[in-house]
């Protein structure tokens, strides 16, 4: 029901290619105008493409606000609305093509209220407030999800076109791509091929009792708690991505048998993840898979983030109170609220007997032996990480609201940010410094989302403040999910490359130049891969 079968799609392909060309034309023109704007800054040009045919024709009276600036501001609601509207407009065309007139009508209705709000804000010269924007953003994102779900492949095509426009913007502000609501939507949709892989594997898991027995034996292996070995943890529901992380680590290790991988996944992916790691060869490394649902200690009375997820108010913040009930379950658990994402704050509790561990995100590829990380001197710090403030925008004040006196009295706004994705954690120091308690404290302070909006990095910057040891930049090279211009030599020299950003290597919108770096660690002759991904 979710995805149309291939036979069904074929007859409409020719018609599709017509509107695809029309869209490409549209986007190219929009891109061109944007490009010209970025270089000349004449005020009126940009309003036309962004706001569409209903844009206000009369020149705007600027009082308090420069609306041109506002609509280009990555964190403003006007920008978010304008972007959603562009996407929604494309979906109106697609929905009409597929005779989904009701969806097209719903989308058009929302687009109109969006345009109305934008022109109202432009006229009165004041930025759009959260109260005004939130109902429209939430209902539009719901409709966009609905449209995306029905027409996934088309969505990918469109995102590729959209990324051309983003590439233009990137030159002025790389952070923009990261923060766009847009890209985030698509990056969160699991491609059909990965679904297929999961289903085949879960079948194996359920049918083959020996696999389950084997898993039970592994669980009790003394190796998983042996501090003479090298331990890595990965928290993910994406099997192929996790496999690439593990495989690339063992392939580049001098002694793969000395490595132990600790994977935690969700209940839905648990059986498939087990089946994959039990039936594939990882050069003798130990792999443990756990199910987050079995962590009974991780509950709402202990972890503030769970309480916040369960909290109706918190959901209403993202989706609008009247939407909460109508929204599909998948939407209630978007990535930024996902518990797997917050597990990184509970590492000492998940592995109470371990002393040191390397944390890897599921969108990295390892290219060098990582065991040397375990002997680096962290100078008593808890977290070894690469810093990210080479670019000016990765300082604390960019992530956290310094208008709040609780923040400004304790932290330096110019302090350098650092990256999650490849971190070495000294778990003894972590326990001694009560970092998890610190995280709980800040997460509770942020119940109303005024300190930061989303994600795990802002609370981590607070919890690990003064406890982070900067590592050589080559340990962890970032940006392969959004930056098209990373120097090849830098990539070659990197111990770990990170596909942070929306263009993940397992998506069709991956950046072509970097995709082989990830793909070479996938066993392309695996029958399931052939059935699900290649065909
Ligand atoms: C608005 O911002 C643009 C771009 O920064 C600038 O070129 C223009 O002069 C500003 N207009 C006013 C009225 O401040
Ligand atoms: C962008 O918008 C945010 C939120 O509305 C505001 O705090 C910030 O100052 C704006 N930045 C610029 C450069 O206008
Ligand atoms: C919740 O977690 C706490 C400690 O993390 C534990 O003591 C308590 O028993 C847990 N509650 C339930 C219902 O499992
Ligand atoms: C951590 O917590 C323990 C007990 O709650 C306390 O005794 C200790 O002083 C705390 N350590 C730090 C560095 O705050
Ligand atoms: C930042 O903090 C101040 C003071 O607590 C608050 O008034 C303001 O709304 C916050 N800003 C955001 C964007 O949440
Ligand atoms: C791991 O990577 C190697 C080489 O890059 C590849 O040949 C192998 O098939 C991969 N293994 C798995 C399980 O994907
Ligand atoms: C790839 O997978 C197939 C089927 O499971 C297996 O026979 C083969 O040895 C694997 N190749 C590598 C290089 O791991």
UniProtKB/TrEMBL annotation:
It is found in: Golgi apparatus membrane. It comes from the Eukaryota. It is a single-pass type II membrane protein. GO terms for cellular component: Golgi membrane. CDD domains: GT8_like_1. Keywords: Cell wall biogenesis/degradation, Glycoprotein, Glycosyltransferase, Golgi apparatus, Membrane, Signal-anchor, Transferase, Transmembrane, Transmembrane helix. One of its GO terms (molecular function) is polygalacturonate 4-alpha-galacturonosyltransferase activity. Pathway: Glycan metabolism; pectin biosynthesis. Gene3D superfamilies: Spore Coat Polysaccharide Biosynthesis Protein SpsA, Chain A. Its EC number is 2.4.1.-. This is Hexosyltransferase.
């Amino acid at each position: 029901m979710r995805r149309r079968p291939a036979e069904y799609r074929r007859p409409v392909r020719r018609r599709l290619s017509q509107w695809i060309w029309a869209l490409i034309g549209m986007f190219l023109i929009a891109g061109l105008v944007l490009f010209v704007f970025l270089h000349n800054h004449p005020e009126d040009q940009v309003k036309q493409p962004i706001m569409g045919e209903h844009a206000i024709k009369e020149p705007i009276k600027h009082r308090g606000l420069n609306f041109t600036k506002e609509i280009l501001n990555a964190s403003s609601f006007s920008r978010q609305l304008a972007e959603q509207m562009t996407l929604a407009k494309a979906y109106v065309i697609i929905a009409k093509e597929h005779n989904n007139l009701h969806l097209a009508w719903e989308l058009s209705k929302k687009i109109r209220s969006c345009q109305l709000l934008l022109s109202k804000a432009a006229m009165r010269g004041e930025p759009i407030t959260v109260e005004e924007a939130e109902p429209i953003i939430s209902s539009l994102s719901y409709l966009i999800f609905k449209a995306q779900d029905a027409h996934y492949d088309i969505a990918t095509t469109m995102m590729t076109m959209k990324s051309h426009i983003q590439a233009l913007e990137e030159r002025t502000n790389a952070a923009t791509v990261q923060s766009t609501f847009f890209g985030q939507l698509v990056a969160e949709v699991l491609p059909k091929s990965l679904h297929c892989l999961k289903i085949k594997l879960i079948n194996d898991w359920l049918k083959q009792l020996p696999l389950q027995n084997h898993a039970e034996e592994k669980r009790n292996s003394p190796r998983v708690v042996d501090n003479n070995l090298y331990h890595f943890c990965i928290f993910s529901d994406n099997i192929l991505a996790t496999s690439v992380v593990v495989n690339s680590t063992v392939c580049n290790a001098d002694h793969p048998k000395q490595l132990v991988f600790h994977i935690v996944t969700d209940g839905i992916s648990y059986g498939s993840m087990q089946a994959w790691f039990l039936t594939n060869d990882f050069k003798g490394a130990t792999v443990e898979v756990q199910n987050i649902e079995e962590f009974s200690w991780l509950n709402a009375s202990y972890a503030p983030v769970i309480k916040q997820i369960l909290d109706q108010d918190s959901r209403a913040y993202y989706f609008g109170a009247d939407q909460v009930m109508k929204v599909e379950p998948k939407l209630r658990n978007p990535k930024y609220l996902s518990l797997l994402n917050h597990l990184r704050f509970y590492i000492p509790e998940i592995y109470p007997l371990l002393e040191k561990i390397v944390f890897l995100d599921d969108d990295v590829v390892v290219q060098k032996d990582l065991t040397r990380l375990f002997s680096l001197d962290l100078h008593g710090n808890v977290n070894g990480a690469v810093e990210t403030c080479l670019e000016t925008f990765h300082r604390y004040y960019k992530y956290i609201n310094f208008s709040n006196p609780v923040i400004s009295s304790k932290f330096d706004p110019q302090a350098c940010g650092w990256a999650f994705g490849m971190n070495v954690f000294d778990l003894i120091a972590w326990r001694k410094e009560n970092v998890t308690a610190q995280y709980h404290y800040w997460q509770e302070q942020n119940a109303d989302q005024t300190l930061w909006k989303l994600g795990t990095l802002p609370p981590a910057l607070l919890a690990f403040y003064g406890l982070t040891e900067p590592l050589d930049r080559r340990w962890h090279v970032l940006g392969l999910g959004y930056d098209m211009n990373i120097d090849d030599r830098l990539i070659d020299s990197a111990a770990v490359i990170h596909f942070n950003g929306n263009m993940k290597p397992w998506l069709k919108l991956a950046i072509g130049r970097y995709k082989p770096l990830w793909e070479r660690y996938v066993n392309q002759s695996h029958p399931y891969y052939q059935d699900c991904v290649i065909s």
